[in-house]
Specification:
This protein is mostly beta strands and 293 residues long. It folds into two domains: 102 residues, Immunoglobulin-like; 150 residues, no CATH class. 10% of the residues lie in helices and 38% in strands. The strands form three sheets. Strands 8, 9, 12, 13, 14, 15, 16, 17 and 18 form a nine-stranded antiparallel beta sheet that branches. Strands 3-2-5-6-7-19-1-4 form an eight-stranded antiparallel beta sheet. It has a two-stranded antiparallel sheet with strand order 10-11. The longest helix is centred in the N-terminal third of the chain and has 18 residues. The two termini are 48 Å apart.
């Protein structure tokens, strides 16, 4: 009987030590994400978290976001040793399916660990590198690329006329090379581009809807020709919304990206060649969060 009891104690001790992960080199630890203002995932995209260990990214797992902003998964199991050594957390957007084991260029949030927590923002150097709190903008309605004056409410130009002469209407921080700004007019519920750009005192990259004349050397567009399906140009942009967004470059999505630092709703009785100030929306609309390990 004593021998059986001794054997039971030995086996019980072995079982306890085998279940104790303290000395297990492949033990996992949990990482938990708490993020607000993440938009709903596209059907062909997913979010993916990464910890930076040394200089190498290590995936913490993928998730999607529903229409209510809820994450499909917020706690993930990660190698304990790697998680303990991680210095930074980065959140990217990845395609579905995704055969690339490394992060995409669309890194939207980042943060450095301080103890067991990281505050993640767009301002981290791994993401956009700026919080855009200083971004300001002014826009006017005008159609300089047409010869007629009866369509002046059908064009938007991000310039400032307060000095009596056209000047840059946007003050925006420089973006990393894989991002660009894009202007938009939301016309009858449809977001229609006014063009992408990197600098604010030069014409933007395209003029798909403008007339035959030359526009001013600032971002903007005359919506007078080549209208998208369902719209009629020229139009009246009074009462509609103007947006400056930040877009991945290259960008395969024809709609505005999640970062929209400047927005204005024009008055119903808007006038041409009058300055309209855009409102800075970065602090209230940009996604932010915390990562705990």
């Amino acid at each position: 009987m004593k021998n059986k009891l001794l054997l039971f104690l030995v086996l019980a001790g072995f079982t306890f030590s085998a279940c104790n992960n303290d000395d297990d080199p492949v033990a996992n630890s949990a990482i938990t994400l708490t993020i607000s203002n993440l938009p709903m995932s596209a059907s062909n995209e997913q979010y993916e978290g990464w910890i930076i260990v040394g200089s190498a990214p290590v995936s913490t797992g993928t998730f999607t976001v529903n229409a209510d902003g809820a994450l499909s998964q917020s706690t993930f199991q990660v190698d304990a040793a790697m998680l303990a050594s991680a210095t930074t957390f980065v959140l990217s957007i990845e395609p579905i399916p995704d055969s690339d084991p490394t992060p995409s260029n669309i890194k939207i949030l980042g943060g450095d660990f301080s103890g067991n927590q990281a505050m993640i923002t767009a301002g981290h150097s791994a993401a956009l590198g700026n919080d855009f709190s200083s971004a300001i903008g002014t826009a006017i309605l005008a159609t300089p690329t047409t010869e007629t004056t009866d369509d002046e409410l059908s064009g938007i130009w991000f310039l400032d006329l307060s000095s009596g002469s056209p000047a840059a209407g946007l003050s925006l921080p420089a973006l990393p090379s894989n991002w660009k700004y894009e202007g938009w007019a939301v016309i009858d519920g449809n977001a229609v581009t006014s063009g992408t750009f990197s600098v604010v005192d030069t014409a933007d990259d395209s003029a798909p809807f403008s007339g035959p004349g030359e526009g001013p050397p600032f971002p903007g567009e005359d919506y007078v020709t080549n209208e998208p399906d369902g719209l009629s140009f020229p139009t009246d942009i009074s009462g509609m919304v103007l947006v400056i967004s930040i877009e991945p470059n290259p960008d395969n999505d024809p709609s505005p990206f999640l970062y929209k630092p400047l927005v204005v709703t024009l008055p119903t009785g808007a006038q041409d060649h009058i300055n309209y100030e855009l409102t800075n929306m970065a602090s209230s609309t940009f996604p932010t969060g915390t990562v705990s390990r």
